[in-house]
Amino acid sequence: MPGPVNPLVPGLHVTNKGLEIADGTSVRATLGQLPDGTYGLLIYNGAIELIDQFGQTVMSNGAFAGPMLDFIRSGIYNNMFVAGISGTLPIGTSRDDAAGHTANCPGWTIWRSSGAASATRVSDTTYPGGAYIELDFAATGTATTNDIALTTDLFPITPSGRLGIRSFESWSVPSGVTLQLDRIVDFYSAAGVWLSNASIGLGPAGASTRAPGNWSGPDLVVPANARFARATWHLYESAGHSAATYYRLGAALAFIANDTSISSIAPGQVTAAGALAVAGSVGFYGTTPASKQTVTGSKGSNAALGSLLSALAALGLITDSSS
Q1: Of 51, 53, 96, 226, which sits with the fewest C-beta atoms within 10 Å of its C-beta?
Q2: Residue 55: how many CA atoms within 13 Å on its side-chain side?
Q3: 143 and 225 part of one domain
């Protein structure tokens, strides 16, 4: 049986613990039995470099790099199209078709149901990631003809939380053309089984031009049994056709998962654009939050008091048990 490695002999050694690498001074890596008796991989004061299936560096010198940084910040791998090969992109026939999931645009699947619509990666410093994906159209279409789409890989989400979509995009829709854009989120279980989907928003519809800029959709409530999601941008010219029509999906695509509860809010004004419901106890001006109070006693003939109690009860602030 091989004995311990001699660290003064550089190279790869087979020992009674597994494989060990020495640099002439000390052992730098062990694959096999570790000093604590468990089995695994241990690197001693050395650099780790990881490269994914697309040839992209995930980690270099012990630090995350490239599109992995975008994944950590946004939840979407290569969400700013930092990685990829400029030029015409390979296209599949569905969001799960490997033909459209290539090193040309890592982390995304480019697909179309039918027709000759195309997708191109273009380098452009106008976009935060330095590149965008342009979608071009060959003829008037429908949701299943002459269409084209971009779909992300699975990304983690918070069950029962809220999911918001933030994108950086531009488009040009000439007169006489209607461009249909469906932004869709599909939800999946922890096992990767499809559960449901929801629409984020439509546009740009009729003739218009948009300079590169941010777009924000409404937040979606994540199903309680969902663990992953995929986002899709699906487009087609629903009326008219022009070779000048294009849609560009660029950088800063931040998919933000937030908890539905709020534990604290920084000092300042808080504004709710829609309806607001408070489920727990309430306290104002520093008062310790208390449960809903019950008002008893007689209002007598005081119409103003009766009106006030009715109004407070309607807001849910009190229970009016007066007579």
Answers
A1: 53
A2: 7
A3: yes
Does 222 share its domain with 315? no
82 three-class SS: coil
Q: Print the domain residue range for 217.
A: 73-258
**How far apart (Å, rounded) are the C-alpha atoms in residues 237 and 179?**
4
Residue 4 within a domain:
no
Q: How far apart are CA 228 and CA 219, in angstroms?
A: 16
Residue 120 tokens read as 């191109």
pTM for this entry: 0.67
Q: Let me know if residue 105 belongs to a domain.
A: yes
Q: Does some domain include residue 50? A: no
Q: What is the pLDDT of residues 178-214, one digit of tens each?
A: 999 998 999 999 999 999 998 876 666 778 888 998 8
SS (H, E, C) 160-222: CCEEEEEEEEEEEECCCCEEEEEEEEEEECCCCCEEEEEEEEECCECCEEEEEEEEECCCEEC
Per-residue model confidence as pLDDT tens digits over 96-155: 999 999 999 998 999 999 999 999 999 999 998 899 999 999 999 999 999 999 999 998
User: Distance between CA 184 and CA 201 in Å, rounded?
Assistant: 8
Q: How deeply is 72 buried, as exposed, middle or buried, from its count of CB atoms within 10 A (0-12, 13-18, 19+)?
A: exposed
Rounded to an integer, what distance in angstroms lies between the CA atom of residue 227 and that of residue 238? 34
The C-alpha torsion from 127 through 133 and 134 to 136, rounded to 10°, is -170
Are both 180 and 218 inside the same structural domain? yes
For residue 274, pLDDT over 70 is answered with no
Does 23 have pLDDT greater than 60? yes
Provide the token pair at 72: 């950590």
Asked if the model's pLDDT at residue 268 lies above 70, the reply is no
